[in-house]
Write a structure and sequence with these properties.
- This protein has nine helices and ten strands.
- It has one domain (5-218, 257-274): Leucine Aminopeptidase, subunit E, domain 1.
- The protein has helices at residues 13-18, 38-43, 72-81, 83-89, 121-127, 130-147, 167-183, 200-213, 233-240; strands at 5-6, 44-48, 54-55, 58-63, 100-104, 112-117, 152-155, 192-197, 261-266, 269-274.
- Helix 6 crosses helix 7 (167-183).
- The protein has a six-stranded mixed β-sheet, sandwiched between helices.
- Residues 241-288 are annotated as: Disordered.
- Residues 31-214 form the Macro domain.
- Residues 274-288 have a biased composition (Basic and acidic residues).
């Protein structure tokens, strides 16, 4: 098993902006953006990594309504935590879509696991509830972290696997929910909020949308050296140490590869969905 990744080695938005890993799009209307915040950018992180290896206070599992495990990220978390996680989940009576429940982390480096049940995109979109339910997962998870005195929380990319929520849309909902939570002052006790992506498509979506909700803090005069905060030697060293992205999908023992593609028709367009997280959330018979 790979070594756990400590919180100190997970890059913040402030660092990622300094290293130009994230930047403002050239055509973006700066006046339409929320106020830049050094505090928020030091609190938010985005990383592509195996969430079961994060040494943080809590990780958020992409669970199904039973909370009893599945494939993909859900199965990987249950396997890494050990059988006691299943036993505790079995006492919780399941969880409604759009909400979350908390358990211990057991063998995981994380102290707690927050199990959030994301929406099935095509079903809930037809009902006009997809955004509301996904936002509920993020907000309730944040509330549970605060209520339990946790200082750090790492989210997996909820609903973007077999539940087929488009990554770009899902990241917008996640970022908007977190920004509002922080603007309301409800996240003041949290030191770090991490978006931990396993698939490149999810990481790319966050890199594209982060500046719309957490824009960089620009120095008053970029021509004045004293006003420009330079990247420290420690930050450069950290950039060189950024963890490698995962190269294989988490697959439950005895299961075949879960990566597959399917096409949906939306209006006049065909939308192809890649199920890299397939199995991370169970489908009902109707979905199959």
């Amino acid at each position: 098993m790979a070594d756990p990744l400590p919180l100190s080695e997970i890059p913040t938005l402030s660092l990622l902006y300094k290293l130009n890993h994230i930047s403002l799009p050239e055509n973006i209307d700066v006046s339409s953006l929320p106020p830049p915040s050094i505090e928020f950018n030091d609190k938010i992180s985005v990383i592509r990594h195996d969430i079961t290896l994060l040494e943080v206070d809590s990780i958020v599992n992409a669970a199904n309504e039973s909370l009893l495990g599945g494939g993909g990220v859900d199965g990987a978390i249950h396997r890494a935590a050990g059988p006691n996680l299943f036993d505790e989940c079995n006492t919780l009576g399941g969880c409604a879509t759009g909400s979350a429940k908390i358990t211990d982390g057991y063998r995981l480096p994380a102290k707690k696991v927050i199990h959030a049940v994301g929406p099935k995109y095509w079903l809930t979109r037809a009902q006009g509830r997809h955004s509301e339910l996904l936002s509920g997962c993020y907000r309730r998870s944040l509330e549970l972290a605060v209520e339990n005195g946790l200082k750090s929380i790492a989210f997996s990319a909820l609903s973007t696997g077999i539940y087929a929520y488009p990554s770009v849309e899902a990241s917008m909902v996640a970022l908007d929910t977190v920004r509002k939570f922080l603007d309301e002052g409800k996240g003041d006790t949290l030191d770090r909020i991490i978006f931990c992506n396993f698939m490149k498509k999810d990481e790319d979506a966050y890199f594209t949308n982060i500046p719309k909700f957490f824009p960089p803090v620009i120095a008053e005069s970029e021509n004045t050296e004293d006003n420009v905060e330079e990247v420290s030697t420690n930050e450069v060293d950290l950039a060189a140490m950024l963890p490698d992205a995962p190269k294989t999908d988490p697959v439950s023992p005895g299961q075949p590869s879960l990566k597959r593609r399917k096409t949906k028709t939306e209006g006049d367009e065909e939308v192809t969905v890649e199920d890299e997280h397939a199995g991370s959330e169970d489908l009902t018979k109707a979905d199959k």
